[in-house]
Amino acid sequence: DRPPPPRPAAGRPTRGRSLQKDLEEVKELLTKATRKRLRDVLTTEKHKLEIEMKNQPPPKLKGDAGEEEKSLLGGYTVKINNYGWDQSDKFIKIYISLNGVQKLPAENVQVNFTERSFDLLVKNLNGKNYTMTFNNLLKPISVEGSSRKVSVPLLCRY
Questions:
Q1: Structural domain that includes position 65
Q2: Which residues contact 94 (CB under 8 A, 6 or more apart)?
Q3: Among 148, 150, 28, 63, which residue's Cα sits nearest to residue 100?
Q4: How many domains in the chain?
Q5: What single DSSP character describes residue 8?
Q6: Does residue 74 lie in a domain region?
Q7: What are phi and psi of 149, to 5 degrees?
Q8: Coil, strand or helix at 29
Q9: 30 versus 137: which is more confidently predicted?
């Protein structure tokens, strides 16, 4: 009564292959989704997967230090719950205080807007990733007219 031997490492899907399969499934679900809210959620997830795949580090040879990979991706992800909100007839501004964000490379601050949602990902700020997602906004927003601005020390989102 021996347990079966473990599968060889070569048979296990890599992170990149897993992300690709997730992306394919999300795209397939998007073609079938008819509800606006569900389409927005799936579009946001599709964008996140595309960004994650794009930022996937190249495969490393055995023996390479994992420390460098850790520094690129940050330690763990923190959900942003503390923010300021300003609203007028034409604009909505969300202010998020993240010390040191202005020193990050532009590609470490990613934002995705859809007509009824937006999500933010700040990568590797002081060893952590930060995320904020708003789904099902009360009114549609202009995706083309939406932007983000990083300033000292606030991250401002419009």
A1: 9-157
A2: 83, 84, 85, 86, 156, 157, 158
A3: 150
A4: 1
A5: P
A6: yes
A7: -135, 130
A8: helix
A9: 30
